[in-house]
Amino acid sequence: MLLTKLAVILTAGAFLASAINLGEYGKKAYGAVKRSLPDSETIKPRQNTVACPAVWTAVASELSTLFLNTTDSLCIDDARAAIRAAFRDCGAWNITSPGGCDGSLILAADELTRPENNGLQAYGAKILAITQKYQAIDSSITAADMIQFASSVTIVTCPLGPRVKTYVGRNDSSIPAVKGHLPNANASAASLIALFAQKGINAAEIIAFIGAHSSSKQFFVNETLAGAPQDSTPGEWDVDFYAETISKPTGVFVFDSDASLAVDPRTSATFSGFVGKQKKWDGAFIAAMTKLSLLGVPEGSANLIDCTSMVPTTRPVPRDVKRATFQ
């Protein structure tokens, strides 16, 4: 039976070979047949089967402790800084410049001193020290990977936060990122859409990204209101940000850039579409954040190692947590 099936396959293969023979059909017909076939890259299986280094289990454990408030089981300011740092390290890249997710945020001499990175100095020193600690155990660890891995751990440390696809294997660089490629909290929707387009990120992905402001507090946009949250539940990873950016309740600080994106015709439907839709936002955020974490990385994830399994799982909102209300 097996030999019979093999003979049939070989006969079919010979028939196909003759069907696209250049001598019989000519180059034009052959080209048409070839174009109708799937691209070989789309059907080639991934070759990267390297296991995630075990050291990342210990890293995840330490970071989980660093980012969690053990009193109320919510995420803390270092957790908020970790998410911001991941974006800042990768987001300074665009199609015209080198860099990207390369650890330069904490390795280059001046990046953390730039105004757009205010508030990240203390966290930068902590995550650099953790990087160096684990490099002494496993030399494959890089600052670039640590910044992104820490962000993934942070997101699940905040209650409701989803597991984001997490890779390691990036190269480090101490060359400062080019200035002027990061968004401004007072920017218009139009300028933000243009800025992110230069990174290969579309308008819908921008809206998914900024939902991370759900766990954010501002300190430098308006220093008279330092510490003001960007939604009423800054210790949780929820979708309150989307509704409250629109309604602007007392006590919630809304960036001008977020307000602009909420009403711009190109982004308003996506923005309002996340109101009350936790799972919908989670899916969109995971895809957008995974894309961000590969900016400037040669060949994307092809040569990286998948360490998503080392990231803890999503945590529920503690039952005894009372949501903040502002008068």
N to C succession of SSEs? HHHHEEHHHHEHHEEHHHHE
How many structural domains can be distinguished in the coordinates? Answer: 1
Number of helices: 14
Shape: globular
State the separation between the terminal residues, measured CA to CA.
79 Å
* Low-confidence residue ranges: 1-47
CATH architecture: Orthogonal Bundle
CATH structural fold name: Peroxidase, domain 1
Q: Work out the strand percent.
A: under 5%
Structural class: mainly alpha
Count of strand segments: 6
Helix content: 40-55%
Can you summarize the main beta sheet? 2 strands, antiparallel
Strand order of the largest sheet: 1-2
Mean of pLDDT: 85
Integer-rounded radius of gyration: 24 Å
CATH class division = Mainly Alpha
